[in-house]
Every structure is written in structure tokens, then in C-alpha cells.
Amino acid sequence: xxxxxxxxxxxxxxxxxxxxxxxxxxxxxxxxxxxxxxxxxxxxxxxxxxxxxxxxxxxxxxxxxxxxxxxxxxxxxxxxxxxxxxxxxxxxxxxxxxxxxxxxxxxxxxxxxxxxxxxxxxxxxxxxxxxxxxxxxxxxxxxxxxxxxxxxxxxxxxxxxxxxxxxxxxxxxxxxxxxxxxxxxxxxxxxxxxxxxxxxxxxxxxxxxxxxxxxxxxxxxxxxxxxxxxxxxxxxxxxxxxxxxxxxxxxxxxxxxxxxxxxxxxxxxxxxxxxxxxxxxxxxxxxxxxxxxxxxxxxxxxxxxxxxxxxxxxxxxxxxxxxxxxxxxxxxxxxxxxxxxxxxxxxxxxxxxxxxxxxxxxxxxxxxxxxxxxxxxxxxxxxxxxxxxxxxxxxxxxxxxxxxxxxxxxxxxxxxxxxxxxxxxxxxxxxxxxxxxxxxxxxxxxxxxxxxxxxxxxxxxxxxxxxxxxxxxxxxxxxxxxxxxxxxxxxxxxxxxxxxxxxxxxxxxxxxxxxxxxxxxxxxxxxxxxxxxxxxxxxxxxxxxxxxxxxxxxxxxxxxxxxxxxxxxxxxxxxxxxxxxxxxxxxxxxxxxxxxxxxxxxxxxxxxxxxxxxxxxxxxxxxxxxxxxxxxxxxxxxxxxxxxxxxxxxxxxxxxxxxxxxxxxxxxxxxxxxxxxxxxx
Length: 681
What we know:
The chain is of the alpha+beta class. It is 39% helix and 23% strand. Helix 1 runs antiparallel to helix 2 (37-56).
């Protein structure tokens, strides 16, 4: 019966892709003049790990390719082959081919074998001309020169004792080196041990990494020694019968039962005692299917809604019972909040998952355009929701490409303008309130206002010289808008920035541009940290209930009549010594006016140092709400970022604070200074 490794295939593909990403990052960062030996070793190990996994899963074309690749890398790390820029370029292309090959295998498509074979020849050609000694892919068959490892794997009898998989497992091990002295033994009524000796040129850590593609780390024990005596442990005698391999006092008897990898017991039981083995790898993280996490988040969302319903129902309970019920609900609320925070934290990932692709992108694009660019990454540990990370990758890539292509000038032009020949591209991320702020800045030529306006007029867009810079800069997000003089394989078709705008707004975010001619451009994206749950303030307007994100609320107030002024038909209010514009939600959403003799209730919203006040009828309270997509169930509505279900079962719209602030400032933009009154920043 053949060994079934299909259940481990997903882990293999994920880990192999991680190794290739590490390979790419290390190659991009390598110093050609003085390569770091540890970096070279890490590059070699990344390729070797992919080779070991590919061999174990029977992907022989990939295994053979990576074998040749690691042979070259081995000579580089040993100083027999100097590392050059053309070699690094070829190594990066080899990583791309490996990535595409793995993707084809994972999707059960036919891999591009000619491309892999072509790259194999490129690897050899890029290295052969400067080879310092010995043939490039010379075989080294002398097993006596290789270190030997004794490997023991413990597995459950009940689940695997009847499978005939030993022969297949031996074949998989043979892909790592020379296998000998294979034995299967019984430890007790529950456990089997599968042992063998392996002659291979890899070290202990690399062997363990390869074996973990087949069996869990906790099931593996490795005892290493060098045949020529260079390792710390001496070779055990050939007649060694220590069936317990140091774990058990009583001898064990050989059995004929075979086993399969993938099962293990964290505790090894004998008649005398229980022996708990320590984990041999970092057990601080696990791989969980994202669909399972999404299901948990949905369930927590329903729990939040249920808690809100109970809280509202408790208001109608008899006074004598209300105290006890309120205490229970308070406890439920605390537990729900803790559970929600814990589950949301599972989905939070560092933005380095996106940033890691930028060094390669910057290097390749700068080289293609003949530019010199230094990439600076800031805040790589900043965390945000996995769903946001997946959707922000493409916009961020477009912004970086745009900065290198349109922003940073060629070296000779920079020198003429008194700048360093190397342009600086900075990509950073940080938390700000309930949002994440991502900036892409360059010290290039900046945006050309006149050229943008000329293109706008060419496209028939309504605008003119009275537009401020912010309005002009936003024109570059118009579909089909491009100021490039010619269409190239990098830019010129006017689609990239349009994609950026659409993707950012689909995430409930916004993008701002700040540019100074001759000094550079900075593009700032603001996004919600998570798309699942937010803290909100319930407000009432004309009998309808709306939710405002709490992170955007600076304060609420009931101003006196003297604090409100009307300038050119626009109301402004004095807040902390500054006048800011007021907009009415009832007027904005065409709702009937609310009749009230009370003073106005204003909620001051703040975003990126811009403030605006919105007029509401009543503040209903603060609570958490579960975000539901309005666009997925209806359509996109201006000023609305989503919807939620209230405790009484009604649907409430979640308002877009960014849009409300923009509308207020749009109305107040042309206000002149009247009697010392100025509108908001």
C-alpha cells in the first residue's frame, strides 16, 4: 500500500512558498562586495528545504532542479564561486520558476517544464564562467565522506500499525541521502518506533526541517555523528540494540508491523512511568485554515448581536429582577469582549507580509528603468486584519511602481538638480486611532500641476485654475488618466492609479496626496484595522438610527447660539478657539426635519487633522457593532461604509466619517474670512 502524503500537501506548498520568499528577500538584500556568510547559508538552506520536501512528495522535476540550484549555492557559500549581480538576477528568476512550478502543482495543472529546464541552463551559464575550481555539478558519491544520522520516529500502533507503508517511506527517505539499517520496533502496546541511518551532506537542522514535511516534529528524534570523526558524537556500534534509544529502560522486540508518517503521541507511556517529551520545535504558532477563523468571527458577531438584544430586553424586566439580570449581562458583555478580542487577534498579521515583496519589485523596476533607488521600510511589525492585508497588496504595489516610474528621476537628472543620484523611496505603516495609515513617499520630481490640468481638459473633465492642489492631485485616480508621454510595459495606460482608488475605497478607506514640485510626493492610505467589528456611537436623526465610528469622534457638544455663525450660507461653530464647518445629516440624506426646541446637538468628527461637525437629533449611546457589507447585499451608497443589526433587530447604517468631513469642507471651502471667522483646517 503506497504511503498517503496528501494530507500534508497543503503544508508542504505553504512552507515551500515561504522558503522561496525568504530566498528572494535574502538575495535582494545581499551585499555583493562582502556577502554575509550567515545570509549565504540561509539562502542555501531555503533551496535545500524545498528540495527535500519536493523529493518527499514525489515532485522529481522540482527536486532535480533545486538539487542543481543548491549545488551552485553550496559553492558560493564555501567561497569557491564569487557572487555577482548577474548570478543574483538568475537566482531570483530561478526562485520565480520554483514559485510558478509549485503553484501549478498545487492547482493540479501541468507545470512549465521547458521554463524550468531553460533556467537550469541559465544557472549553469551564469556560474560556469567564473568557477574557481572543480566541475559545477560534479557528483560526490563517496558515502564515507558524508555525516551519518540515526533517526527515530515514534507513531501510534492503533492508527498506523496495520498499514504497509514502510517501503514507500524508505523511498522518501532515500531522497535525502543514503538510507541503511532500517528497523521497525514495538515500544509498548501503543507505540511503534521506525528507525534508520541516513548518510547525507545536510546538517541536523536541515534534516529535521525536511523530515517535518512528513511527520510532526514531536515524533522525531535525531542522533548525529560524523563518519570521519568531525562531529561531536562517535558512531554507535553496529550491534547497538538500544531499542528505546535512550527513552525506555526495558528492551523492545522487533515486529513486522509497518507505519506511516503523520501520527505521534506527545506522551510515551510505559508500564513503569509516563514520559513527556519536550517539543523539539517552536510550538508557539499553528496553521489554521482562514475559513475556520472567519466562521469563529461570524459566530462572535452573532454573539455580540445577541448580547445587545438581551441588554435591550432587560430594560423592560421587573425592577426586582433587573439588578441580577444586569449583573449577568455585564459579565456576558465582558466575556464576549474578551472572546472577540482574542479571535480578532488571530486574524491580525504584520504588514511585513505585504512589504516583503517590495524590495524585489523596487530592485527589478529600478534596474529596468536605469534608476538608482533606495527603499526604506518603516513599521513592518504593524498589524492589521488578514482580509485587509490581502486587498491592500495590489494598491501598494501600484503606488510603489508609480513612485519609481513617475516620481524618482534618472541619476543624471537628479545630479543636475543638486540631488543625490540615488532616489529615496519610503514605505511605512502605523496605527492611528482605529485605523492603519500606510504612506508611500519619494524624494522625486513631484506632481506637475499644469500637466495634470492639461490632461484633465483633454479628457473633458470639468476643472480649472481655481481648483486647489488637493483637488488637482485627485485627478490622477480618474480611469484612463495618465500623463506619461508613451505607453511602456511599466506604465502609460492610466489604469494603475484607478485600481488603487477602487481597492482602497472598497476597504472603506481613503487616499490623500501631498506633493511639492522638485521635492517629492507622499501618498497616504487610511484603512480600518479590521473589517469585522468596530466601536460605534449610535445617533438618531429624523427618527432613524445611524452608527458613527467611535475612533473618528473627537467630542460631542451642545453649543450656545453665540458659538454658531453663518458665513456665506454655511454654518460654522466655534470649538476650542477655532471655527469648523457644520453639516446636517437630515439635509444630506434628504430626511424630514426633526422638530425640537432644544439646542443643536453636534458631533465633531476628526480625520487627519481635519475636523467637521454634524448636526444630529440625539445621542443614543456607545456600543460595539458587527460590520455587514452593504455593497455585497445592495449597492455602494455615498456616505455609508456598511450596516449592522441592532439589538431590537432593526438594521442601522454605519456612516463614513471621511465622507462626512469631506462634504462639510467642500461646502465651506470658498468661505472667506469674515469678521475674523475662518473655517476649519
